[in-house]
Amino acid sequence: MGPTAPACVGALATAPASALAIAAVPATASAPAQAMLGIGEVRHTRVRPARNEFHYPTYFLMLPMRRLRAAPSSTLKRNRFGLISFFDRDHGDGGADSLAWLDALLAREGIADATGEAWLHCYPRVLGFTFKPVSFWYCHRADGSLAAVVVEVNNTFGERHCYLLSGPELAFGRELRATKVFHVSPFCAVAGSYRFRFMRTGAWEAALPAAHPESHPAAHAVRKVADRTVARIDHHDEQGLLIQTSVSGVLNPMTPARVRAAFFGMPLMTLGVILRIHWQALKLAAKRVPFFAKPAPPSTFVTRR
Q1: Average pLDDT score over residue span 30-40
Q2: What is the structure's pLDDT at 201?
Q3: Which of 159, 234, 246, 260 sits between 20 and 30 A of 135, alpha carbons compared?
Q4: On the CB side of 131, how many CA atoms lie within 13 Å of its CA?
Q5: Is the pLDDT of residue 284 over 60?
Q6: DSSP designation for 228
Q7: CA-CA distance, 188 to 279, in Å (whole number)?
């Protein structure tokens, strides 16, 4: 990734909501889907009762799970050790086939048209270790449109919960809401709601006039752009906005050289994620942010908005 890429994706992650309504031609329009490595940053801002913000570099996987079932990647170390690897059991119900779990979940929820690619945005294992605060399953229809998004959340107590987002308003760039039901931080009550917004551009993007973003891409010129992604989660309570979080990055096909560069650039990324979580907790405690005891987890594993 070039030196200006972190600034680019960081600007997208903090841009006004309307700026994320980008029309894009799916990356699969011109080439088969392939395992991607994202290089970017995580941003987090708490606005009250004491302001606390941070951002740091990161890398992550963006995996076309259906394509990988049909044609496994020679670069991705799947269910085996590697500098950077992916294990199915780190997702869903912990079984050996995470895509099978996803398909079963969608079937139980009556979502029958998610027959296109299922992209999984997640942290990898690094030297066999991982902690995945949040992962995103982007479930597409055959025509490339979004049928559902599954947001998979893990807390530091070893618990996991999923938010299933679906409905006619589901699309990249649009705001989606879900009631918060799962304990994540002792400095946040299990109350309020999440507001999600996702962006993914492919290898080609329609050049739409800024005044008419609703126009159809086919009516305008198409230009080559970087493949990039932004996942943004805002937590609101009864007083309004409480926390803004985003993870963003530029995506490139996984190659041995890119894997080595990511690993040796941040060889202790998993440890860094865990240490940063606890360091920020200490900062919040020092600022006397109220502490909330951990409640029992939700009675159901999946919450549908």
Answers
A1: 88
A2: 85
A3: 260
A4: 17
A5: yes
A6: E
A7: 16
Q: Which two tokens stand for residue 254?
A: 């996984």
Q: Is 175 exposed, middle or buried (0-12, 13-18, 19+ CB in 10 A)?
A: middle
Is residue 26 domain-resident?
no
Domain coverage including residue 38? 32-210+228-300
Token digits for 292?
């909330």
Domain-located, residue 4: no
pLDDT of residue 147: 98
Distance CA 95, CA 288 (A): 41
- Of 86, 97, 89, nearest in space to 122 by CA: 86
Residue 218 has pLDDT above 70, yes or no: no
Residue 1: inside a domain? no
pLDDT category of residue 222 using cuts at 50, 70 and 90: low
pLDDT tens-place string over residues 99-116: 999 999 999 999 999 999
> Domains in the chain: how many in total?
1
Question: Residue 19 falls within a domain, yes or no?
Answer: no
For the entire predicted model, the pTM comes to 0.86
- Sequence-distant (6+) residues with CB within 8 A of 110 are none
Residue 13 CB contacts under 8 Å (≥ 6 apart), including other chains: 41, 43, 230, 232, 246, 247, 248
